[in-house]
Amino acid sequence: xxxxxxxxxxxxxxxxxxxxxxxxxxxxxxxxxxxxxxxxxxxxxxxxxxxxxxxxxxxxxxxxxxxxxxxxxxxxxxxxxxxxxxxxxxxxxxxxxxxxxxxxxxxxxxxxxxxxxxxxxxxxxxxxxxxxxxxxxxxxxxxxxxxxxxxxxxxxxxxxxxxxxxxxxxxxxxxxxxxxxxxxxxxxxxxxxxxxxxxxxxxxxxxxxxxxxxxxxxxxxxxxxxxxxxxxxxxxxxxxxxxxxxxxxxxxxxxxxxxxxxxxxxxxxxxxx
Length: 273
Fold this sequence. Notes:
The protein has 273 residues and is mostly beta strands. The chain has one helix at 260-272, and strands at 4-6, 12-17, 28-34, 39-43, 47-62, 65-73, 83-87, 92-96, 101-109, 117-119, 125-129, 136-142, 152-158, 163-170, 182-191, 197-202, 209-214, 218-222, 226-231, 236-245, 253-254. Strands 2, 3, 4, 5, 6, 7, 8, 9 and 10 form a nine-stranded antiparallel β-sheet that branches. The termini are far apart.
């Protein structure tokens, strides 16, 4: 199976990963692009949905309540802190664009009710993870500290030639609290935009063993297996990451063949302290 998909910028809403039409059972993903004075009504149905404003801004009205303008960046590389809107299941979301806006739409089937919420830049936590050459800045937009019940969503920024998510890790076995069953998607952008990265996905038994060259607007689904990313030299790599499954949060295990790298990371961090 090919776990890589591509999106071509276009006006309106474009579903990319749909329930029953992808390798995933707990995640859906699409892209919404609107021009000046355009609007779109999105029905969440049985999913909770995170609307991550990648560029521009838009007004969000949920079930008739106006939550105001959301969005504070011209592009994702302008700031590691996005603004977003969270909508629970059974919500009609009217999205109105004054100029141009690009919104990533992340959904997960949800059996719990919640309340709509605006996530501002000040609400987004940013952490520097790893050490060079597997260092990246990671933001946390939707998680258990928000009204989301299943979704965990954030952004990662990888400097040229560096790795992210190393050692390779997975979250496909229920061994809580060490590891939980969580599906994931990465959506990529690059600066300059002709850049690329290599996205690896593999399982210990070899049933999945893929290495994708990902470019602007590509995404990769992770239904299971270890995954890790490396960016090409000369290009800043960005990816929006989203997770959902039986548990909300980070419950993952590293590939034991490369787990020793984590010990090296701890030593390097102690040396920098």
